[in-house]
Design brief:
By secondary structure, the protein is of the alpha/beta class. The chain contains 16 helices and 21 strands. The chain has 2 domains: about 110 residues, Arc Repressor Mutant, subunit A (Orthogonal Bundle); about 300 residues, Alpha-Beta Horseshoe (pyruvate-formate lyase- activating enzyme). It is globular, with a radius of gyration of 21 Å. It binds S-adenosylmethionine and iron/sulfur cluster. Iron/sulfur cluster (SF4) binds next to loops.
């Protein structure tokens, strides 16, 4: 469906109706529904099932440490000022990788690896090389493997980028969030535009093929004017991809977020206006709006995949590669292996104790039923490709037209003869739409674990 952002005005009554707490659907079923019924044994047997099945797999490694904690941060992140902390973490990561490969086997073909955090580039050059070796020794990267890494611009050096490039990383994602000084003060993260411009230039000089910049809308003190300037600067930096996340404010779960002054947070209508502003600006600058909150140059592989209906999404974000299995390692990491989700212990000391004792550190997870898989496919299709073939509608939803009547009336979806299509306006509410396909939500009731959908 063609999209003209100038015509996309979100009526206040829709914001009021659809602004609820809801999942971002990086998985279905979502993490809060998982149980401790999946532990080390169940995950080990999933890894054994995966040993001989499927196409090349994907790896995720979590590096939890940061130099300082940003006030808004929702990630599993810890702070340290000692380089030796990362050495000790790598020792434990090595133990965990041995536990994984004891089940999965060594040399498993891998097409994608992402390093996230926390801040992977808190590792120095020697530590980056050691970390890479831990994986390269145990997995066989395909010739066209995609290696990507998240980096904090405040710590990024030319040497570090050269090291990462030499190891084979071709994609890098920098956390920008907002370029306005007042907003940066309010979120406890000062990084001037010149710094971001420098790291982007160095990454290009080093030979990185893809640069992503992360922005957040809905931060304290953000105004249409200040955010407009941030977007303008970001466009001048010409990133290949931009993620523009809605600020997830969950102070009950993330105690440091209590230092954010809630009186300075934009209200629901201003938040929606900020996001609309981002969509308008990026689409006008010839970026494709992907799924929920990502943008990519129209020639970028993600944009091409969306046009071809091949865009996929997993815990690492949007991707062109639907890997057969995703193995995550490191504290808090999530895996999806042989129809089984598994999350590792998110508390560092407990994670360390488990791997030191020779146990896989899985603490919760979920084994997918056939119904889960059908709903997962439907939700993925809506989140990625903004449509759902009617013959792929899971059973058990009742009459879909009746169920979604309100969405049709509000202009958020259209029923075509063979498919359900999300309209441009409906893209702002796609999380709400996916909630209609979620079999677990009603049982969960109000949960403080989800952020606002709008
Ligand atoms: C692991 S960080 C990126 C790498 C590095 N640690 C940094 O901050 O530059 C991942 C991204 O998550 C996003 N993020 C973190 N906390 C968030 C929150 N509460 N709501 C929305 N996005 C958030 C930020 O955009 C951040 O860049
Ligand atoms: S946003 Fe990034 S740098 Fe800041 S605390 Fe979170 S993970 Fe660390």
């Amino acid at each position: 469906m063609s999209f003209d952002p100038a015509t996309l005005q979100v009526p206040e009554e829709l914001l009021a109706r659809y602004d609820v707490a809801g999942p971002r659907y990086t998985s279905y079923p979502t993490v809060p529904t998982w149980t401790d019924g999946i532990g080390a044994d169940a995950y080990a047997s999933a890894l054994r099932r995966a040993a001989s099945s499927g196409s090349p797999m994907a790896l995720y490694a979590h590096f939890p440490y940061c130099a300082v904690k940003c006030l808004y941060c929702g990630c599993h992140a810890l702070t340290t000022s000692r380089a030796s902390t990362n050495d000790r973490y790598l020792d434990d990561l090595e133990r965990e990788l041995d536990l994984v490969t004891a089940q999965l086997g060594r040399g498993r073909s891998t097409a994608q690896m992402h390093w996230g955090g926390g801040t992977p580039n808190l590792l120095d050059g020697r530590q980056l090389e050691r970390a890479f070796g831990l994986f390269a020794d145990r997995f066989t990267f395909t010739p066209d493997v995609e290696l990507s890494v998240e980096a904090d611009p405040r710590l990024t050096t030319r040497e570090q980028l050269d090291t990462l490039r030499a190891l084979g990383f071709t994609r890098i994602s920098f956390g920008v969030q907002d370029l306005d000084h007042g907003v940066q003060v309010a979120i406890g993260r000062i990084q001037p535009l010149e710094m971001i411009a420098d790291v982007c230039a160095w990454a290009r000089e080093s030979g990185f093929e893809g640069i992503n910049l992360d922005l957040i809308y809905g931060l304290p003190r953000q105004t249409a004017e200040s955010f407009g300037r941030t977007i303008e600067h970001v466009l001048q930096l010409a990133p290949d991809r931009v993620a523009c996340f809605g600020y997830a404010h969950l102070p009950a779960l993330r105690a440091h977020q209590r230092l954010i002054n809630e009186a300075e947070l934009p209200d629901a209508s201003s938040r929606a206006a900020l996001f609309h502003q981002a969509v308008t600006a990026f689409v006008a600058a010839d970026y494709a709006w992907l799924g929920l909150d990502h943008f990519a140059r129209r020639s970028d592989p993600l944009a091409v995949a969306q046009r071809d209906g091949r865009l996929h999404r997993n815990f690492m974000g949007y991707t062109t590669m639907p890997a057969s299995h995703l193995v995550g390692v490191g504290m808090s990491a999530i895996s999806e292996v042989a129809g089984c989700f598994a999350q590792s212990e998110p508390r560092l000391a407990a994670w360390r104790a488990r791997v030191s004792a020779g146990q896989l550190p899985t603490i919760r997870g979920h084994r997918m039923s056939a119904d889960d898989q059908a709903r997962q496919r439907a939700i993925l299709s809506l989140m990625c490709n903004l449509e759902l073939a009617l013959d792929a509608v899971p059973t058990g939803l009742g009459n879909l037209e009746t169920r979604l009547a309100r969405y049709v009336e509000d202009g958020l979806v259209e029923f075509q003869p063979d498919r359900l299509v999300v309209t441009p306006l409906g893209r702002c509410f796609v999380r709400n739409l996916c909630m209609e396909f979620d079999a677990y939500l009603p049982a969960q009731g109000a949960t403080p674990r989800y952020s606002r959908t709008v």
